[in-house]
């Protein structure tokens, strides 16, 4: 069990700690419970908007779960240079939903998966390979702002789930708000006023109690369980591949966003130890993102990237063990091979997950704030960078139609809150003189006071 150090939080279990097996399995289930609905929602939304059959939709959902699990295991334990050895749960990101729908309608799903196949490892692999060189451009001020915006712009997603899910007939109904509030209250109460296993499993307990209440009030539909098969085998090239230039350019932009999110999420996780990820961790994490996304496209899985909600779990519970996250990856992979089990999990109402998601994304934003405050002097220069970056990021998140006059590719690129915040922070921090600027600051190797946020080099 790890103790609190300067810049860190109180950790119940450190990076390489192994909780007892029963506790590890429950903690792993907690990670799965928080991310499974938003991760599979990407597949449901895209398949529904493109007009895929029920069988094709179910298959894509399975592949998202399977490759989320495989990528999570690789992230926790690594395969060669791939993986960060950090407790990062992987899943399919909402970043790619709009592009997948548009390209799927205009060019077909073969063009979607062809673009993912080409750009996944090509973009994130290149960024990971050269990250040591570009690392000085991502000091705690920049990465902290990325973590903050990831949390902030996901808050409306959490509210939508708490209200019952976008498009639900009972959206905003009192019973949905009540369920979400119940889950939130139980999770917060157990975390703040109890100790031991009750505190560590506070989120899972909230979801479980919320689900029982939902069943008691007749709000759960069990029919998907009976309709699902017990086992499904992955089918390579189910939709085929087409390589449309426009689709490839758009997904290349979005994988840049994904890389920025992953950098932010890795920083959010290691912030629990009061540090930034090492060069080796950054490189391995980005390799994992890109490679598993490309391989997953062969089997019709949408891009796999780090899941921000689960970064919040690490900071909320103080359980940083990568072995716990490895178990959650195995659980996800099993769910991906068994549609019936996955169907049972997805019967949990959106409102139940909404209470947990709201808590988690808030914790993500809070961990970003801590990363900035601990390692950045908030003088006038840095306050302006924070103000501009968050202002632009939240601006395009809340008012995306403001960019409707731009060309489609530019609207897609600049309409991403993470990319607007990251680019603003990156450009301002780089070209405005200051301690964290890579152009004006003393090089790390010549400095007698190295940045405390940067972990030890692995090279």
TrEMBL record:
Membrane topology: Multi-pass membrane protein
Principal cellular location given in the protein's record: membrane
Subcellular location: Cell membrane
Entry superkingdom: Archaea
GO CC aspect terms: plasma membrane
Pfam family, one: Xan_ur_permease
Spans traversing the lipid bilayer: 25-47, 59-79, 86-105, 111-129, 141-159, 171-193, 200-219, 239-257, 324-345, 351-373
InterPro entries (UniProt xref): NCS2, UacT-like, Xan_ur_permease
Region of interest (Disordered), residue spans: 439-459
GO molecular function: xanthine transmembrane transporter activity
Family statement drawn from the similarity comment of this UniProt entry: Belongs to the nucleobase:cation symporter-2 (NCS2) (TC 2.A.40) family.
Protein name: Uracil-xanthine permease
Organism the protein comes from: Natronorubrum tibetense GA33
């Amino acid at each position: 069990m790890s103790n609190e150090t300067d810049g860190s939080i109180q950790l119940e279990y450190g990076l390489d700690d192994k909780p007892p097996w029963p506790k590890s399995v429950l903690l792993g289930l907690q990670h799965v419970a928080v991310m499974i609905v938003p991760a599979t929602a990407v597949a449901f939304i895209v398949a529904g908007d493109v007009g895929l059959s029920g069988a094709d939709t179910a298959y894509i959902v399975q592949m998202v779960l399977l490759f989320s699990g495989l990528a999570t295991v690789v992230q926790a334990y690594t395969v060669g240079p791939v993986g960060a050895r950090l407790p990062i749960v992987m899943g399919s990101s909402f970043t790619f939903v709009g592009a997948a729908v548009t390209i799927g309608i205009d060019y077909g799903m073969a063009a979607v998966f062809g673009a993912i196949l080409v750009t996944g490892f090509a973009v994130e692999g290149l960024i990971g390979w050269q990250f040591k060189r570009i690392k000085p451009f991502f000091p705690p001020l920049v990465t902290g702002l990325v973590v903050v915006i990831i949390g902030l712009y996901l808050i409306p997603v959490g509210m939508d789930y708490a209200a019952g899910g976008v498009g639900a007939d009972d959206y905003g109904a009192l019973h949905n708000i009540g369920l979400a509030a119940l889950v939130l209250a139980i999770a917060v109460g157990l975390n703040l006023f109890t100790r031991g296993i009750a505190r560590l499993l506070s989120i899972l307990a909230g979801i479980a109690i919320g689900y029982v209440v939902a069943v008691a009030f007749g709000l759960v539909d069990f029919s998907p369980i009976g309709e699902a098969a017990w086992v499904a085998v992955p089918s390579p090239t189910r939709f085929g591949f087409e390589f449309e230039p426009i689709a490839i350019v758009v997904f290349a932009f979005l994988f840049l966003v994904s890389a920025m999110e992953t950098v932010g999420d890795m920083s959010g996780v290691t912030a629990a130890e009061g540090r930034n990820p090492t060069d080796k961790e950054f490189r391995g994490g980005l390799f994992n993102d890109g490679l598993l996304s490309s391989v997953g496209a062969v089997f019709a899985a949408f891009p796999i990237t780090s899941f921000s909600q689960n970064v919040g779990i690490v900071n909320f519970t103080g359980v940083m063990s990568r072995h716990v996250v490895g178990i959650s990856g195995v659980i996800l992979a099993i769910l991906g091979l068994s549609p019936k089990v996955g169907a049972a999990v997805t019967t949990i109402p959106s409102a139940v997950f909404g209470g947990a998601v709201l808590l988690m994304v808030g914790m993500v934003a809070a961990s970003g704030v801590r990363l900035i405050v601990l390692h950045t002097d908030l003088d006038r220069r840095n306050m302006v960078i924070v103000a501009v970056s968050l202002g632009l990021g939240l601006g395009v998140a809340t008012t995306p139609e403001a960019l409707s006059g731009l060309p489609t590719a530019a609207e897609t690129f600049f309409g991403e809150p993470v990319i607007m915040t990251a680019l603003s922070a990156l450009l301002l921090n780089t070209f405005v003189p200051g301690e964290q600027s890579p152009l004006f600051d003393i090089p790390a190797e010549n400095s007698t006071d190295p940045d405390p946020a940067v972990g030890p080099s692995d090279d």
